[in-house]
Amino acid sequence: MKTVHLLLLVCLLFTACKTVKENGVASFYADKFNGRKTASGAVFRQNKLTAAHRTLPFGTKVKVKNLSNGQTVKVVINDRGPFVQGRTIDLSKKAAQKLGILRQGVAPVILKYKKKKSKPALYYILLRF
Question: Which residues form a coiled coil (predicted)?
């Protein structure tokens, strides 16, 4: 019986995340923000692969794909923003360079990230055993 409970618990843990896709527009930080603190408390560095998003939890790993040229980059969310209407994510200069958007400044993108699902009641029941 304990084996069945353990198997159910393992299955629940492996289905606790789902991949989310979000379409939007990416831009990148101005140089004046280099060295300043981000909303997460980390110091912003243009040479790191980081980004700002309005709602994603700090530490979320996001794969960003430039829909204009197909280039991709993986970034970590460590700040809030962008604060320009119509934009979805603000990238560090290094991330923007990898996406090939330094010249135009903005690009249509698709974001992919894992979103944690809330655990079903069965999960908490199984924890008792």
Answer: none
